[in-house]
User: Fold this.
Amino acid sequence: MATLILSGWFAYVALDWLVFSATFVGTSQADCTGDGACWLPITQRLGLFVYGFYPETQRWRVDIAFALAAGVFPLLYIKRIDRRWTLAYLVLLPFAMWWLLKGGPGLPDISSTRFAGILVTVFLGVVGMVFALPIGILLALGRRSKKPVIRVLSVLYIELIRSVPVITLLFMASLMIQLFLPSGWNLDILLRVLAVLVLFTAAYMAETVRGGLQGMPKGQYEAAAALGFSYWKAMGLIILPQVLRNTIPPLLTQFVGLFKETTLVMVVGVLDVVGIAMSTTSTPEWIGRENEVYLFLALFFFAICFALSRYARYLERQLEKSRQ
Assistant:
């Protein structure tokens, strides 16, 4: 009973500070006269948090890109949709988002230096997830390859990447890669940090998939060989579908880790949502309102990571049903 009373009291105090006594309307810190939270640093700079420095007249492109990214969740949940259509959607999604955000045929070009805030976080997270898994699968297969050259190269890559902090790789991508490119070539900084996040996550996913491959009964490989399946046909139709189904929880955990690691791009000059938050808290007008700003960040990342974790749990339940 005492625990319930204490929990109820804590919930009331938290809601009172967060909502009931909070300030949502105003233009400056002088309008924060209540005893609750002051959400004006968020409401007054919401456009900066979401769109960064993207031109206001072109923000509809960002909205469409967000909608396309959010559309992945219903596709994954609806069983009636053919999985081949879902796979095609995932393959085309990164290219569609880049075309919308950066520009291309039919759309004016927007410099990636104007990308910031949630725009950067969502782009890096979604595109990183889409590309990291197939590269991780290829690395896992390469590590188990019977060809020594492929196996050694895969092992060297995986062990090298796993032994270096991702922040070091980000610094290398931002400072050193450009030195090796021909004169006059300039690889977009956003693509460079994206490549680092993808390749870093893929190395960890490769070990997860390799564990799933090692856990497969030997009879599965023998049955595929008896049916006359080639190596790639056996992997694509028999082995990998079972491996991926069994490794869903750790893979989605790594997806969550990738989404949170996107915040590290701030150290190489790419302003994600954390970078915008830090610039807000350092603005003289909003000094002293750090709690509200970082609480907003916590709620944002919690919502995304919670959605991913719930989907992982949903897939686990489906897997348990299929085994009964």
